[in-house]
Design goal:
By secondary structure, the chain is mainly α. It has eight helices and no strands. Helix content is 82%, strand content 0%.
Length: 244
């Protein structure tokens, strides 16, 4: 289960940042300015913001199995669609759909981890999954550059979209929302896991104090996200145009 989630984190970051490498090719092809390319990058980020909240809520209602399957299927379709676009408007629309699909992935994956990983190992599990995402950042530029040379920038999106589709099928086949329903789980493993999800009302959550506690973390994450996307979105263009 953890290996599948790590693979999803890896794929999700490749799906979202491959646009930076590909823009060195489709930018001149479509006659796009840097401002237009910036719009394409932002077209992913804004729906991604909204659907992290909406997708997390849907994941709570429907469970990680089918929520992640649907989300990653949307990612696959959107990634393949990016390889078929003909200009700025269609590129922006495809990136909006990608942002919608990816929005639910990380919060819902965290919910899956909370059911399948013992409490004492959750920090380690989150570290492994997030490291997989950063590994996706690291290897995406050379992989996409290689695929662009091998099969064009459009072909790189077709291949990455196909890999994303394979993951969705594997997840739907293998994962179970309740570990007790998975035939591979042993009695000893099940004994280490938390009990079934509680049915307590959401009113028992001290939202005011929780928001106050989390505000500093949110501010730090905002500044982190700003810096991260500056590098992911623009560094490939900078090195390509200024240093060849």
């Amino acid at each position: 289960m953890l290996s599948l989630i790590c693979a999803m984190y890896f794929i999700a970051f490749v799906d979202r940042v491959n646009i930076s490498m590909a823009s060195t090719a489709f930018g001149p092809e479509f006659g796009l300015s840097n401002t237009a390319i910036g719009m394409i990058i932002s077209a992913f980020a804004l729906p991604y913001l909204v659907f992290q909240v909406i997708g997390g809520w849907v994941g709570d209602k429907l469970g990680p199995r089918w929520t992640l399957t649907a989300s990653v299927l949307i990612m696959a379709v959107a990634t393949i669609a990016i390889g078929m676009v003909g200009g700025l408007v269609s590129m922006v629309l495809a990136r909006v759909v990608l942002g919608i699909g990816e929005g639910a992935t990380f919060p819902v994956a965290t919910r899956a981890v909370s059911r399948w990983i013992p409490r004492s190992k959750r920090g380690w599990a989150q570290g492994v999954t997030h490291a997989s995402a950063r590994f996706g950042n690291a290897v995406c530029p050379p992989i996409i550059a290689f695929l662009m040379v091998l099969m064009s920038w459009r072909g790189s999106f077709f291949l990455v979209g196909a890999v994303t589709l394979v993951w969705a099928v594997a997840w739907a086949w293998y994962f179970r929302d309740d570990p007790h329903q998975h035939p591979a789980m042993t009695v000893e493993e099940l004994a280490e896991l938390p009990p079934a999800a509680s049915t307590k009302s959401a009113a028992t959550v001290p939202l005011g104090r929780l928001a106050l506690r989390m505000t500093p973390v949110a501010i730090v994450y905002f500044t982190y996200g700003w810096s991260l996307w500056l590098f992911l979105g623009w560094m490939p263009q900078y090195f390509y145009h200024n240093f060849g």
